[in-house]
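Hi team, as promised in this morning's meeting, here are the two structures we talked about. I've kept the exact order from the run log so nobody has to guess. The first one is mostly here for context; it's the second one we should focus on when we meet again. Sequence first, then the predicted structure tokens.
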Amino acid sequence: MSSLRDFSIPEAYNQIRSMDTLVGLEPIVDWNALGSMVSSLFKNNTEKGGRPNFDEITMIRTLFIQELYGLSDEATERELYDRISFRHFLHYPDKMPDARTIWLFRERLSSSGMDKKLWEAIWKQFNDRGIRIEKGVIQDASYIESDHGKHGRRKPPVPVDPEPPQMTKNEETGESPGKGDAADPDQKKKMTKAQKKAAKIKASEKKRLSKEERRSSKTRRSKDGTFTKKDNRTHFGYKLHSSVGVDMPLIREFVVTTAALHDANVDLSVPDMPCYRDKGYQGAPCRGLNGTMDHASRNNPLSIDQVRRNLRISRKRSPGERPYSIIKGKFNGDHVYVTMVRRVRVKAMFKCFCYNLFTLMNLKKRGKIAAAM
């Protein structure tokens, strides 16, 4: 088996090397430095001991592959054994991580906040190579859909009418009403109103699901996701806010929130740098030079100067839509199955990481950053 792994599989990989995207992405960052950062997450090297963990570099590369190709944990485990290019990217380990190991490693990153440190370490490597954002940023946001889990909700108790319905004459005497003994119309009207009220209470209780109940549920329902509506379309889940460089089209910062949080509540501008934003950010604070588009209001149309200013800002901020187009279209990042903001944050970090490496690889091919890389 050793000879098969050490010779036959690498030899077969050489036949598809020219078609492998991972070949161009791997040398852009120092993976060993990233692996040494997350080694502190494991405590099995103490006196208490414990089961040996997978190599940290292998796990980071695994999460990178997962988000690059938009795979679930189970699909990632299957593809690691099936695809030669994945094995080559992981440097042919003796054993591949299974779905549970992948989930637990992502959970360690999210609960400890190590994903934020990884992101800063990645950008430190970029800065050391001369890759910087100096001419301003573009801020925008996009929805990440999630499963709101309609089934499996806890049923509320059936409300009891405060007053029982009054009995008719025939009910008091125990006689059955005849054809001419119709029920009292006022009583019938009261019963109808009570039934409507009970149905309304039941419907409102069914729609309202507290945060504590969501967190204690054992379903795949999102625990932090919220509903919002935009352009007559309902969204449920989360929102990815990002700032992209004007001169270097890379994602510099990102924040993950629930879908209901308005874009104006997140400020990703950089002091002393222009920040170009759309009309939805009007009136929002800005740490940098405010490049927010003006928004017309009722009985207050935009002036000619404001319209021209909006056109100039629109040309500047249009490249800010590209990251979401690639993340959703190429990396399948428009939907998540994890159930908390911190877990979505880790997946979003690796999506942004994939986008940055993918962009740098294309810039290198066109000769725009050859000296830096």
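And here is the second protein, the one for discussion:
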Amino acid sequence: MQAVSSQTYTPTEEAEIQQWLTTASRVEEHAKANSTNDAQLRPILDTVNTHLSTRTTLLGNKPSRADTALYAAIRPLVSAWSPDQRTGENGYPHIVRHLDFVQNAPSTFDLTVSDADKVAVDLDDVRYVKPPVDAKAEKERLKKEKAAAAAAGGAGAADGASSLPDRTKNNKAGAAAGQPDGKAKPKKEKKEKAPKQPKAPAAAAPLSPSLIDLRVGHILKAVKHPEADSLYVSTIAMGDPAGDDTTEYEGQVCRTVCSGLNGLIPLEEMQDRKVVVVCNLKPVKMRGIKSSAMVLAASPRVKEGEVDDHKGPVELVAPPADAKAGDRVFFDGWKGTPEGVLNPKKKVWETIQPGFTTTDDLAVAFDAAAVKELGKEGVGKLVTESGGVCTVPTLKGAVVR
């Protein structure tokens, strides 16, 4: 295994390293607060332990500075853990194994740890081992259960057959002919089947801002994109079930989202905050990292004749304080069912987005008059089911995208 200083990393690996550095930083904060039993810390430890259960290092088999950062953050916790906390039924044996590996492979991780500073780990003290599943025995058990169920079903069928009245005893000829009076049943002429009519195509949903899937998102962490100076890479929970475009972080199903906000919004303001996200745009790769949603933000409207230099200011759209990740938000007066994934060829987002704006009272709203294809007028504020309004801090009459 090559040392960290000799390794090269792909953009995806660099992004993962940044995510683990953020996780290590959060663990370190809890450790400094002596909160080893903090309820907020346990989901983080559960995630790390599960991740390491099938990996030698955080990246799999490749060491990185993320392993060193995690070691530094986790060391005070492990040194204080009881044997049960380390390797008991509810312990973290994979975290302990990773820590012992890092501290005893200094050349691999470009780390210097004196013997006095090493956490004493007794590799023979394993308090709980999950019982292995005997695949052959399990298969045999299922086979026996299936055979028993089939036998029970067959016996029931036989009993049912013996209890049915025999209607053929008094008229064998009729039975032979297939009719009670013994007469053969005339064959029916086959009717020609009418050709199947092709199904009419489903009517297209009328153009509306309700076609856009807007939800409350919770940014659990955000890091700088390793290959793009203008991008942040955020891990955002937005109420999804587990799927192809999701990942699990701290026990929550999340999407990875790239946003061009680096240099416009400080990174610390992107951490652990609620935002509004567009969830049904087609995922795209941004400098090697797949982005599966978009964070809504407001910026000043460019006056006629001016050029949009994208230099800001920029303000994130904030949902109501009591809103939860995954809550639907919609423009008042335009509530409806959003599309699963917007078809890029139909340009729904590009057509509707020019109507996204902010009002004089700093509410995010949709101005129908700005979308001539709708043929309507009126302004509807962006609200939750409970009526809470999504807002921005200071920008009035802004562009929201």
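Starting points for discussion:
Helices lie at 11-32, 41-52, 65-80, 83-87, 93-103, 135-163, 172-177, 348-352.
Residues 135-163 form the longest helix (29 residues).
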